[in-house]
Amino acid sequence: MAKSPIPQEIVSAGAVPILTVEMHTTGEPTRIIYSGFPEPKGSTLLQKLADVEANHDHVRGRLMLEPRGHKEMYGALLVNETELTATGEADIGVIFMHTAGYSPMCGHATIAVSRFLVDFDPETCPGLFPKRNFRLDEETMTTALKLHCPCGVVNVTVPVVNGPHGRLQSDPKRPISFINVDSYATGIDVEIPLPEPYRWPELGARTSLTADISYGGAFYCLVDVEQLGFKDGLKSTDLDALSRATAKLRDALKADPRYKVYFQHPTEPELSYLYGVIVRDPKRGVPAEGADGAEVGLCFFGAQQVDRSPCGSGSAARRALAHAKHGWPPEKKWTYHCFLSDACGGLGGFTASVVGKSADQANEPPRAGERVRIRVEGQAFYTGFATFLAEAVDGISASGFVA
Ligand SMILES: O=C(O)[C@H]1NCC[C@@H]1O
């Protein structure tokens, strides 16, 4: 690797340099932070997340916002030790971050991080992922990884090939898949009244709409584009108007305590909140090979950040909703597209299917609240790697900013 052209005295004069690998999953960035981030304190992953939020949030800002990031940046901080790596239930932990905070789950970053974890060279990253333990399936040439995400353990399968130096490396030609934590719809066809301050122009004379609520590691409100009043479907030219409409819908849901019941995580109060609004256009989208159908969607999360990817946790939430609402058989595979994959002729869509029900619900018919395991598939690619500095005398950029 090339040496830094900046004199070492400058590199080491400010905060510890932060090292990242940069990837994208259907256009959505993941800045994977593997060295230099302050060590989070706590014995559980959620305690470590709370510590990062309370004490190192400015470092999140530094890496996500300008001038090192931008308003749509996304990141993943690797955490070697969690309560579940200690028991062997997980291989490594991860804290997901965006421009306005942190995510309970992130499918696109799970795909990127898992590929990186298979590929990185332990000699160049000493201390990273010390319990690295590939479980290779030689028949399928895949390796398994258990990622401890804030929402729980996600089981990832990464296709591999034999690399030139006798080391396994990821196979960029085949999709990575993950089996998410239990996913379930919490609200089907919920009538949402929209009081005056929570309306937008495209609604016209309507004063309410119908939407669904579903969990895929994070809670999403899922709404058809026509319900929002956009009669011509999802169009990228309407992005600003869609952002204004979904922000109003999000605010209406957050303002009324009656909706809290739809966003209750069974065990973790920290995860009990509306994370994003996904606008669906069921009339568009090309199915990926082997899939039974497709739809296009657009996910707004955080401070109305736009997911470039089809949103992995949202795909799980949507497939769980289809199971509960329409009784789709488990093997029915659906391709979830974003604007980008739709514009690229279907390249980069995420495909989701049901791979199992919770054991205690195995014989029950589909219904709201029923927990299912969803497998989501997608691909991530490397775009680079970086060393980020913060000079001690730089009063502007240490915590990042949005212009
Ligand atoms: O793929 C996902 O699940 C996500 N992408 C950004 C917002 C969500 O966390």
UniProtKB/TrEMBL annotation:
Pfam families assigned to the protein according to its UniProt record, in alphabetical order: Pro_racemase
Domain of life, source organism: Eukaryota
InterPro entries recorded: Pro_racemase_fam (IPR008794)
Primary enzyme class: lyase
Chemical reaction(s) catalysed: trans-3-hydroxy-L-proline = 1-pyrroline-2-carboxylate + H2O
GO terms assigned for molecular function: trans-L-3-hydroxyproline dehydratase activity
EC identifiers of the protein: 4.2.1.77
PANTHER family: TRANS-3-HYDROXY-L-PROLINE DEHYDRATASE (PTHR33442:SF1)
Membership in a protein family: Belongs to the proline racemase family.
Identification of the protein by name: trans-L-3-hydroxyproline dehydratase
Species this chain originates from: Thermothelomyces thermophilus (strain ATCC 42464 / BCRC 31852 / DSM 1799) (Sporotrichum thermophile)
